[in-house]
Amino acid sequence: MVSPTSCGSKQSGPGRTAFVFAVGWQHGLVAHFDLCVIGTGSANTILNRRFAKHKVALVESGRFGGTCLNVGCIPTKMFVYPADLAETPGPAAGLGVDLELQGVRWEAIRDRIFGRIDPISEKGKVWREKSDNITLISEEAHFVGPRALDVGPAGTVTADRFVIGAGSRPVIPDLPGLGSVRYLTSDTVMRLDRLPASMIIVGGGYVAAEFAHVFHAYGTAVTVEADQTASR
Known about the structure:
Radius of gyration: 22 Å
Order of helices and strands: EEHHHHEEEEEHE
Strand order of the largest sheet: 3-2-1-6-5-4
CATH architecture of the largest domain: 3-Layer(bba) Sandwich
CATH superfamily of the largest domain: FAD/NAD(P)-binding domain
CATH class of the largest domain: Alpha Beta
Distance between the termini: 41 Å
Number of strands: 8
Helix content: 25-40%
Largest sheet: 6 strands, mixed
């Protein structure tokens, strides 16, 4: 619950949110800030000492740290490296070196990666929550007027300036029958409980190619559907 009568504390615990607006209240549940930053990826990096005396709202509906840290270039490259190692016996044989791949431990690879990434995300979130001038709002948001942002149960945020760094998200193609099956996206496939025996990847871009390489190297039978409709 957001209370306009609170005295500036940020609360946490069962049944309570991690933020309470304390300053700049207008009528109703409307809080005004000098700056509102949407997204905690690259947009989060602008909040340095220059803004130490500004009242800042930081809005994030997903994992703190944005696309690159949590579902983009950092975890994917950490999956690619062991995939490259898994394919080493092939080219090594052509150089006269006989190697043997004895197996791939998916759970160990996955847990190593997110065992490093998740604490970084959480520490970044806690660091911002402890900031004296930054209010972290963990809600989806959309504009409802000039310089006015609806942040769900938290109410409405207005600001003199906005920075939009909302990142990217998968686009689900309109394919017949897709809604009747359990499918994964590039955001969720990296946290699979176990390595699948087979996989169909819909799309022919660099993200699809990267995951095709990773899972094929790990031993999954991969089929890539990369026609023009699926690749958009």
